[in-house]
Amino acid sequence: MISVKKLTKTYRIARPQEGRFAALRSLVRPQYTVCRAVDGIDFDIQDGEVVGYIGQNGAGKSTTIKMLSGILVPDSGSVEVDGLTPHVDRKAHLQNIGVVFGQKTSLWWDVPVIDSLRILKEMYRIGEGQFRKNLEMFCGLLDLDSFLGQPVRQLSLGQRVRADLAAALMHDPQILFLDEPTIGVDVVAKERLREFILEINRERKVTVLLTTHDMVDMEKLVDRVIVINAGSILYDGGIQGLRERYGRQRRMELEFEGEPPEISLPGVQAGKQKDGKFVVTFAQGQYAVDEILSHIRQGGVPIRDITIQNADIEQIVRDIYREGGRE
Amino acid sequence: MRVFGSWFKTEMRAAGLYRADFLLRLCYSLIAMYGVCSLWRALYRQDPGLVGRPLPAMVTYAMLAVALDIIFYPSALKSAPQNYIADQVRTGRIDTDLLRPRDLQFQLLVRNAAVALFSLLWLVLPAWLLGVFFLGMELPAGVICTAAFAASIVLGFLVLFSLNFLLGLVCFVTLDIRQITMAYSGILTILSGKLIPNWLYPEWMQAVIRLLPFRCIFEMPLNIYTGVLESGEIVRGLLLQGFWALALFCLGRLAWRKVHKYLAVQGG
Ligand SMILES: Nc1ncnc2c1ncn2[C@@H]1O[C@H](COP(=O)(O)OP(=O)(O)OP(=O)(O)O)[C@@H](O)[C@H]1O
Ligand SMILES: [Mg+2]
């Protein structure tokens, strides 16, 4: 169980100085700009949950993950993971968690993957039986066999992430932090990663907290979403709730027998898309579908086909980010 | 220590991945050995009393220094702590090292020692054999001398490792240590007894050198090997090396704790 209370983290960034002896002065008395990356967040994560942690670039996701894994010390507030404070009980905590940063490998660059795993076996004091069992399982689920003997620098990105995932799980952690695990991975490989994460969550009851910019990850993986913006939490709850609370946009796709008519209703956007579809979007509460349709019919052009959708999750998230949570 | 056997072995195997590099390195060392050998012979022809040691002992000293340089040059090995830290900091991968349930200093020691041992077996030893058979290097003066020499190399390595680690820590703060590394290598070359035997320096400089740890890296093992030290001096030399190794290692530990705290608070 993970419990985060009033957590804040501020980075101090040395500001380059100008004028005479600038270099010297910045050594003697450096000046800083302050960047509040995480600004008083609270959440609890129960054992066995899969939680998606999303937010715009620079929202503070990685910073939170780093505090949860004990790399960074919070300025104030508290973090507790399975009864341990990450940055205090560092070693014990690190035995309990697995971490994967999608952008950087934690494996030995020049060493065959299998040897990296062996080194980890020693570092984490993994027993031979456990090592064998895990290796077999991950080889099966992640298809590691074909590149187990290759050094990491020769792996494709998708292979590398798979190897990193296996490495993060060799010591049977009960908690997994994934920072953008699917970044730059192709659709097929992404699908396999997702299945693997779900499998691990199902079979081993591993708690997963993952950040991503991929909304398909959200829909397929996650029970619960935490949205963070500029260091503060905007939303914490199920995907369905996110739809209900923010999914106010509706979307109508139309095909006409001739030239599409002008639509001039306040608050309604309409226009032809690249693929020739005519798309109308409007706010849920503002207009009924019938009002929009009768307005279009006034143009006199017969409608050939029509589909109406709720906004997809990507659209919703885009709206949240754009408004920064203003409702 | 047995627990880390396979970690150590894997690191050693990884060191062997660059065979071509290895062969080139060996060629380079042999040429350099031949070079210093010729240089000292020429100097002795000018003035046999110049150095105060017999020619074979001096030639052995100089050539062995070149051979040991393969593992004792401060940044010879890619796995040397300061190189590794600089690399990881530059690429941002240092986070992943901090995610291990082992102390960074210990991780680096295992890695560096494994590669050094590998290089010792596959480079220094061949270079030494070739030196003995073809360039007139002497054998160590007796069994005790050999054992003391082996111990002295291990201690010398620990001193160097600890100094390198301290240098690596600077990287966390300044991000770039290339300039400092250059100065550091220069100081080591001049004061460690590798290029110029320390007893050739003026008295005041020798006094300074005696206060510094650098001579523990080359001068001690080389003096032990060439048999110029009495047994009492050997013991004192080893103790001094042990003192510096321990002191610098502990200093590195303390400094790392400080730097680690700084990193965790400042966010790198
Ligand atoms: N080491 C650092 N030093 C100074 N500022 C930093 C540092 N790391 C992050 N920041 C700043 O903190 C803020 C939050 O960064 P963070 O990496 O947590 O964002 P993120 O949500 O992970 O973004 P992304 O989706 O791009 O990965 C950003 O404004 C960033 O510029
Ligand atoms: Mg990030």
What is the topology?
The complex is a heterodimer of chains A (327) and B (268).
Chain A: E1 2-15, H1 22-28, E2 31-45, E3 50-54, H2 61-68, E4 76-81, H3 90-96, E5 97-101, H4 113-123, H5 128-142, H6 157-169, E6 175-179, H7 187-204, E7 207-211, H8 215-221, E8 224-229, E9 232-237, H9 239-246, E10 249-256, E11 269-272, E12 278-283, H10 289-297, E13 303-310, H11 313-323
Parallel strand pairs in A: 3-7, 3-8, 5-6, 6-7
Antiparallel strand pairs in A: 1-2, 1-4, 8-9, 10-12, 10-13, 11-12
Chain B: H1 5-15, H2 19-46, H3 55-72, H4 81-91, H5 94-98, H6 104-134, H7 143-174, H8 178-191, H9 203-211, H10 219-226, H11 231-266
Compute the CA-based radius of gyration of chain A. Answer: 25 Å
CATH class of the largest domain in chain A: Alpha Beta
Q: What fraction strand of chain B?
A: under 5%
Oligomer state equals: heterodimer
Percent in helix of chain B: over 70%
Largest sheet of chain B: none
Number of strands of chain A: 13
**Overall pLDDT metric of chain A:** 88
CATH superfamily of the largest domain in chain A: P-loop containing nucleotide triphosphate hydrolases
Unreliable residue runs of chain A: none
Outline of chain B: globular
Distance between the termini of chain A: 31 Å
Compressed to H and E, one letter per element, the order of chain B equals HHHHHHHHHHH
**CATH architecture call of the largest domain in chain A:** 3-Layer(aba) Sandwich
Describe what you observe in this structure.
- The complex is a heterodimer of chains A (327) and B (268).
- Chain A is α/β, with parallel strands linked by helices.
- Chain A has helices at residues 22-28, 61-68, 90-96, 113-123, 128-142, 157-169, 187-204, 215-221, 239-246, 289-297, 313-323; strands at residues 2-15, 31-45, 50-54, 76-81, 97-101, 175-179, 207-211, 224-229, 232-237, 249-256, 269-272, 278-283, 303-310.
- In chain A, strands 5-6-7-3-8-9 form a six-stranded mixed β-sheet, sandwiched between helices. In chain A, strands 11-12-10-13 form a four-stranded antiparallel β-sheet, with no helix packed on it.
- In chain A, helix 5 packs antiparallel against helix 6 and helix 9 packs across helix 11.
- Chain A is globular, with a radius of gyration of 25 Å.
- Chain A starts with a strand and ends with a helix.
- The model of chain A has no long low-confidence stretch (mean pLDDT 88).
- Chain B is an all-alpha fold and 268 residues long.
- The chains are: A alpha/beta (327), B mainly alpha (268).
- The A-B interface holds A 9, 11-12, 37, 63, 66, 69, 71-73, 87, 90-92, 94-95, 99, 101, 103-106, 108, 110-111, 115, 118-119, 121-125, 151 and B 3-4, 6-7, 10-11, 13-14, 17, 91-93, 95-96, 98-102, 107, 261, 264-267.
- The structure holds adenosine-5'-triphosphate and magnesium ion (MG).
- Magnesium ion is lined by residues 61-62, 179 of chain A.
